[in-house]
Amino acid sequence: MNLLVTGGAGYVGSVCTAVLIERGHSVTVVDTLATGNREAVHPDATFIQGDIADVAHSVLSEHHFDGVLHFAARSLVGESVENPAEYWQHNVVTTLRLLEAMRQTNTNNLVFSSTAATYGEPAQVPITEDFPTAPTNPYGATKLAIDAMITSYAHAYGLGATSLRYFNVAGAYGGFGENREVETHLIPIVLQVALGHRESIKIFGDDWPTPDGTCIRDYIHIFDLAQAHLLALESNTAGAHRIYNLGSGEGFSVREVIDACRQITGHPIPAVVESRRAGDPAVLIASSQKAKEELGWQPERTELNQIMADAWEFTSALGDRAHSAPKH
User: Fold this and answer.
1) Sign of CA dihedral 54, 57, 61, 64
2) Do the Cβ atoms of 59 and 27 come closer than 8 Å?
3) DSSP element (H, E) containing 70
4) What pTM was computed for the model?
5) Closest alpha carbon to 228 in 67, 20, 72, 41
6) 139 a catalytic residue
7) Nearest Cα to Cα of residue 193 among 257, 278, 251
């Protein structure tokens, strides 16, 4: 297939691009490089630097794509609270322009990068797709709004689409991994401590109602995530919008993640306990049963040590660049 990947210079987009090319597909990446890295774009992909909101129609008209994988978005929860206008503009308005360009060029196959943040703070786990959606921040709200837009386009215009709601994505694949200017995810932050780029890792509360008192989260390997995108793309049906959760179905505590990092890296990883953060649920675990049954998705890399080892191999190879600004 000839495919368009928006945001393909970011973490998830770059790995998905690599897997698509590995499977023999032709890929064009569009990215502003505002938060992505130029070196993260696979060398065999065609690269267009620009905002998909501005270039969607011309790019789709010129290349006649078989499908679109849409990753381009702002994705920092705290920033979305401080500057919601930017999130509604970059996430919702940009996606509307992309959907319009797809409609006008008869490009009817879409996979959308959504998020578990659409569920907010669920009362129980594991989280299934029929749980109420109640996002607690503008980031999650923008993704939920986009899901609603996609549903309406599918029903009205025959778009075949899948939204994939990720939980905690981690690991690396094929030389591509996490390398952000502003890092908020636990595993890369812990690895930065191992590299000496941070003095310690903060644990936000050790009095949660969990076995070791720290929060529990569901971690999914980036390669397994990429596999799900390809399965969705290949099975989309005109006029239908499907939504799937993607996670490992298992939970690991903050202390377990830190201990795994110590084991993998051989570094002590100093940890400092601080007070709880407002809005943090004690446990978040996904049910991915629907994706397994309907997509035939089978995650292969669910062991925490493997996720950590792959992330460490990538992060340590970056050396001093691991905590630097993205290279444009």
Assistant:
1) positive
2) no
3) strand 67-70
4) 0.92
5) 20
6) yes
7) 257
Q: Which residues pair with 243 in a beta bridge?
A: 163
CA angle 80, 113, 120 (to 5 degrees): 50
Catalytic residue among 139, 166, 219, 244: 139
With tokens 């938060």, the residue in question is 35
Residue 170, beta-bridge partner list: 221
List pLDDT tens digits, range 64-114: 899 999 999 998 888 999 999 999 999 999 999 999 999 999 999 999 999
How many whole angstroms separate alpha carbon 141 and alpha carbon 119?
A: 9
The amino acid that residue 289 corresponds to is Q
The answer to whether the Cα torsion of 43, 48, 49, 51 is positive or negative is: negative
**Encoded tokens for 91:** 């996430």
Tens-digit pLDDT profile for residues 8-42: 999 999 999 999 999 999 999 999 999 889 999 99
Rounded Cα distance between 166 and 111, Å, is: 13
